[in-house]
Request: fold
Amino acid sequence: MSSRFTLKDHFRESRLINERLIFAALIAGLLFLIVMVRLSVLQVVEHEHFNTLSNQNRVDITPLPPQRGLIFDRNGVILAENIPTFSLELTPENVLDLDSTLAELALLFSMTDEEIVDIKGRIKRQRGFRQFVFRQRLTEQEVAVFSVNRHRFPGVDVVGRLIRHYPQGALFAHTIGYVGRINERDQKRIDAQNYKGTQQIGKTGIERYYEDLLHGQVGHKQVETNVQGRIVREIKSTPSTAGQDLFLHLDVNLQRVAAQELGEYNGAVVALDPKTGGVLAMVSKPDFDPNLFVSGISTKNYSVLRDSLDRPLFDRTLRGHYPPGSTLKPFVALAGLELGLVDEHTESFCPGWFSLPGQDHRYRCWKSHGHGKVDLKTSISQSCDVYFYDLANALGIDRLHGFLDLFGFGHRTGVDVPSESRGLSPSSEWKRTRRNQAWFPGETVISGIGQGFNQTTPIQLAQATATLAMRGVNVSPHVARASRKTSDSELQLISSKVSEALPMESSQNWEAVIDSMVEVVHGQRGTARHVGKGLPFKMAGKTGTAQVFGIKQDEKYDAETLAKKLHDHALFTAFAPADKPEIVIAIVVENGGSGSRMAAPIARKIIEQYFGITADE
Amino acid sequence: MNSVLNDRANPQRWSLTKALRKIHIDAVLLLGLLTLLGAGLVILYSAGDQSQALMIRQLTRMAAAFFVMLLISNIHPDRMRDSSYWLYGAGLILLVGVLAFGHEGKGAQRWLDLGFFRFQPSELMKLAVPLLVATYLAERPLAPTVFRLIVGLIMIVLPSLLIAKQPDLGTSLLIASSGLIVIFLSGISWRIIIGFATVCTAALPVLWYVMHDYQKQRVLTFLNPESDPLGSGYHIIQSKIAIGSGGVFGRGWLEGTQSQLAFLPERSTDFIFAVIAEEFGLLGVGMLLLLYLFIAARGLYIASQAQTSFARLLAGSISMTFLVYVFVNVGMVTGLLPVVGVPLPLVSYGGTSMVTLLAGFGILMSIHTHRRMMSP
Reply:
C-alpha cells in the first residue's frame, strides 16, 4: 500500500472503484441475459426448424468448380482442353480412422509406403472438411474394384472430374505451360473462396499468366443429405461460370516446323508478326510433356527433368541468355549511320584482324585472311568483323548502349508469358556500378560484334529485329490474341501496345541496313545465300555465330577437337518480305556451330510454311 | 450466494480454506475453476471424436497451466506492480520481433519460435497491459487526470495495433478491452466515457478501411451468412443448426449428430460451445454460463475486497475480461457477433490461452491471499 496517500483518499478511491465494480457486475448480468435470450430463441423458439434440418435431413453445401477455359491456336486448333476422368477423393473429417483407411487403400491400389506418407502429410496440411484428391485418372478396372469395396471406406468416393489435357504434348510445353495441384505458395495469390472445389491452377506459361481469365467463377449447390450422407434432394444451386477461352497468335504448323527443324539440337525459335507483335511460334528445345504435371508428376519423372544437363524445363525463348554475335551488326551499323560516323559508301580495309592504336592485341575477323575492302553492305552481307570492331570503337560503348536501348536490348519485352529475363546490354556505368570495374576499350571492340558482355534472349532478338523490319515501329510481343466468354459470344481482342516510331534522322538509313540484310540472303557472297533461292519475294536476314569458348591468340577454332558443349551457338534473324514484312524470325541453335549452316535453313522452312511455298520450286 | 463468495463468513468452520490460503490458494475460486475444467474435459471428449491422445494433451496443458497459476499466486501483488513496466516493455519488443521474424501459421504471424517451444507474445500482453495500466493509474490519486488518461490509452493502443497487424483482430480487441476496463474502473467521468463511445462509433468506417480482406469478409458474412455458404458462413449455419437442434434438454452426451457426424467445423476449438448446446441443451449451456458467472463474480468480489487501488483495478479487469471472452465466443457461435476466432475460455482445446487465463486467476488469488488481516 502506498504511504504517499492519506487514508481518506484511499477510502474515497475504494468507494469510487467499488461503484464501478457494481456497475461492471450489472453489465455482466446484462450480457448473460442477452446470451440466454439468444439461446432460448435458437433452442426453444426455432428448435423445430433446426431440428428438422439436423435430424431427418442435413444441409450439405458442395462447391461447383468452374470449367477451365480452352486454349486455341490462330487456326482454331485446340492446344489445351479438359477431358473427363475419374478420381478417388477423400474427405478427411468423414474418415473414421485415417491411418487404417490409407493403409487399406494402399493395398487396393498397390501404392508404396512412401507415397502414402506423402499423401498423409498433404492431408494434414489442409482443412479437414475439404475434399482431398487421393488418386487421379482411375482406370475403369480401378473404378470397379473400388466400387465393390466402397462400403469399407466411409468418407472416400469416386468422383468424375474434368482434368486438363494438352493434345499437342510437348510442342507448346513452355509457352502454354501447364496446370498443377494448388500448393501453399499458390494459396497466397488466389481468392480462396473462388478456388473451393478447384483442384488445379496454372503453374507456368499462358496457363499462369491468364489464370484469372481461364479459371472462371465457382458456383455451389445446397443439397439435403440423409444420415448416410447420400443426397436426397437439391435445395438450390448457383451454377459456376466457366473460364474464358483463349485464342492465341501461335500457329501450330509453324510451331511444328520450327520444332522439327531444330531436331536434336537444344535451342530456341521465336517468330513474330511485326505489325501486331503477335507471337506466331515460340519453341524451346529440349521440351517435355506438360501432361505429366497435370495430375502431379512422380518424383522419379520430375528428378529426371530437373537434373538433366540439357535443362528441358528451362524456357530458352524467354530466359536463355545468348551473346547475339553478328546478329547485332545491323543495329550497330544503324547506330553508325544515325550518328553520322559512316555512310553507305564509307570503306574500310579488313586484313583479317583489328588492333586498337598503340596496342598489340589482334581482334580477329572470322575470315582469317581478311575481306579486303568492305563497305556497309559487304560488311553486313559477308559479316566482316573488322568493320564493326572499327565502328564500335568509334561509337564508344555508351553511345552504342544508348542506341541499342531503343530496340529493347537489356529490357524485358513484356510478353504475356511469365518469368522473362532481362538480358544484358552493357555500358560503362553498368560495369562500374555492378562490377565496380572500369570499362576497357577492348570490351567496346568486341561489343561491336555482339560478343563480350552482351546477352540477349531470343524473344528480345526477335522484338529488336521486328522493330528494324518495321523501320522503327516498336511492338511488344504478345501470345494471346483474343478471349471469349462462351462458345457463342463475341471474341474480345487482347490488345498489345504498339508504341510510337523511334526517333531517327533519315529513313534512308533504315533502307541501307535492310538492303544489306537482303544481300545476306540474296547476294552472291551473302553468308546465307543458300536459303534465298526460289523465293517469290526478298527476304532479309543476318547470320550470327556466338562464341561459347574463348580461343587464345595463336589458336584456331577447330570443331573436331572441341567438346560439343563448347561449340559455337548458331544464330539467325530474318524477316520477309523485306519491303513489307509479315513475319520476323529469331533462331538460336545451341552449339550448332555456324549460323549460316545451322540456323538459316530453319528460317527458310518456317517462311515456306508461313507463305505456303512448296520447297524446291 | 454471499456466504459462498464470502469466505470470512465463518472462519472457524472452513479449516481447509485456511490451509489452502496459507499456500495462497483461494478455495472458492479453485472450486469454480476445477468444476469448469472438469466439465470442459467431459465436453472435449465428445467434441474431439473421443480421442484419448487429445485428452492427454489437454490434461497435460491443464496441469502445466495450474502449476503456473500456483506459482503466480505466491508472488506478492506489490512485486507484480514493480515488474509491470518491465513485463510490458519485454512484451512490446517481442511483438515487434514477431512481426519481423515470426512463424506463420494459418496465414497469420503470431508465433515466436524459440527452438524448444513456440511462444505467442500476444498472450503475455493479455496480462501485461491491464497490469501496467493499473500500476500507472494507481500511482496518483484517482480518478486520473486527462493527461494520465491519454498516456494510459497509448499504453493500450500500442500493443493492440501491433497484434492487429499480425493479423489477430480477436486478441487485439480483447487486450484493448482489458485495458479499457481498467480505465473504466479507475473512475473517469461518465461524460468522457460517453464521448469516447461516440468517437468509437464514428471511427468504425476508418476501422473498415484498415481491415484485412479476410476480416472484412468475416464481417460481411456475419451480416449475411447465406452470402458465403462455403466459407465462414458455413461455420455459422452449421453451428446454429447444432445449437437449435439441441433444444431444452439436448441430445445427450456423445449423441449430437451435428458434432459427431462432423458437420460442425472446428468443433473442439472455437466452436465447442455449439457441441455443448447440441448435446446438453439450454439447461446445460445455462449451467455452464452460470458457472462462468460464478467465477467472474468471485473475481469481482476479490476486487472489491482488495486493499490497494492497484489491486482493485487489476482484479476487476481480469474478472471482467474473462467474462468478455466468454461473451465474445458465445456471441460468435450463436451468430450474435462476427466470427473473430476467440476460443471458449478453459474449455476449448488449445494450450496457450489456458496458461494465460489461469495465470490471471493466479493473480486474483495472490491479491486475495496476500491481504494483511485486520482480524484473525
Notes: Chain B has one domain: 2-369. Chain B is about 70% helix and 5% strand.
